[in-house]
Amino acid sequence: MSLKTIPSKREDFERLTGFEYIKSRLNPKTHIGQRYFKHIQPLSYEHIIEHFDDTAFVIRLIEGEAKLIADIEHDLECILDVSRTIEKITNNEILDEIELFELKNFVLVAQEIRNKTQQVFSSNERFSLPDLEEVINLLDPERLRLPTFYIYDAYDERLSQIRKQKRELLQKKNAKDDNLKERESIEDVVLQLTEQERSVENEVLERLSKKLWNFADLLEEALQKIRYLDIILAKAKLSIELELSKPILYSKDHELQNIQITGMFNPQLKDELAKHGKSYQPVDVTIKRGVTVIVGANMSGKSVVLRTVALIQYMALLGFFVPAKYAELPFLELIALITEDFQRPLSGLSSFASEITLIDSAYRNSQNTSALILIDEPARTTNPYEGTAIVNALVKCFEETKSFVVIVTHFDDVECRTRFRVKGLKEDALKNIQSFNDIQELMDYELIPDDGKSVPKEAIRVMDLLGVSKDIVSQALKLLDRHSEE
């Protein structure tokens, strides 16, 4: 799947959404699993559904077969990355002893994992590792099943003869310390035998490599299924640790009208609050096709809503469970998150120019692409008259795209079909406030429908709580009431 993001650099987008934190919490056991998550890419719809189903299955296994899963994870930690070696086998190249040593280690551990997974994964082909017994026998002709590799005598009878002669001559040499001439003669013969041994060993390496060429597909299958097992285990463990849930993702053919998220939370912020003994208030979000406007005071969590919605949609398209109790999501081709944190001035242009350029890019892309576009306080640096005009223009234009668009704004007189506001300060708790530091504790972050008629007074109430001069507070209230009457 080709997923576009705004910002276009994936690392910038993942930083803004908080997916960096999600990646930091993952704990894959293999190098190939770690590399997958480092360079993770969105999946096709079919593969996403497979990841969802398999993650749910593995979660049940972790809860019911903890000892077996721990044993499998231990084996995964012992898996060597033999990607390059298997590539050489696929290309019909000759392997050296180090590569054969690593390959033998890999197939021995892979076979152990196969034996364990057969107990619980037998019904799922995606976890069904191929039988590597024939490969093991090639690399372990003496059937010792030790994680070492040596060009054994069993590979060629000439090796046994040459090595026996070398041992006998070296013993003879050690017994002739006083006869320099005879010792030198023995050394010459040993050198010749060593060259013969190396020549035969090279023949063995070539013969062995050619036999392994026949198992290229089998080895690649084993590697990919081990990587998949590691990936799904990491996703399942993360889902348990962060209390993520399986979303419902609708295909592109399904014209989903609403993004519905219940009990949404931001994992990173939730974790930070928990460290300080504070709880996180989950929120419910409904985003209709067209434009949804969210209003509310500063400190009311509007920006967190945008980032978390973007995170949830992105995680779903990567095949992750999501931070919510329930989520219905569309299969999208564009996610845009435009916030103050990513307003990089372009060639001397203002932050407004940078912001509006990103918004325009999102608008142009949304003309023929299924998109989720999240814009935080557009035109915040302009005067209120121009700012209101710009936001109204954005609402009208984006409404025509039929994308899912959320705009957070503090401007009045924004005309839109769907508007929510953050509920704000809890009335019944205001009288108990001891200091300004307690204000965040008293915020109710619930999103409630708003008709745009009520005049917000959150900022003035915060001024009052801060102990700002009564003259200023009362004057501000008078002017606000006069404005609302007009």
Account of the 3D structure:
The chain has 486 residues and is an alpha/beta fold. It has three domains: 43-152 and 211-238, MutS, DNA mismatch repair protein, Chain A, domain 3, CATH 1.10.1420; 244-451, Rossmann fold (3-Layer(aba) Sandwich); 455-486. It contains 17 helices and eleven strands. The protein has helices at residues 10-17, 19-25, 31-38, 45-64, 66-77, 83-90, 97-117, 133-139, 157-175, 180-213, 216-242, 267-275, 302-317, 351-366, 384-399, 458-465, 470-485; strands spanning 4-6, 248-250, 258-264, 283-288, 290-295, 326-330, 334-338, 371-376, 404-408, 418-425, 443-449. It has a seven-stranded mixed beta sheet, sandwiched between helices. Strands 2-6-3-4 form a four-stranded mixed beta sheet, with helices on one face. α14 (351-366) links the parallel β7 (334-338) and β8 (371-376). α3 (31-38) packs across α11, α4 (45-64) crosses α11 (216-242) and α16 (458-465) runs antiparallel to α17 (470-485).
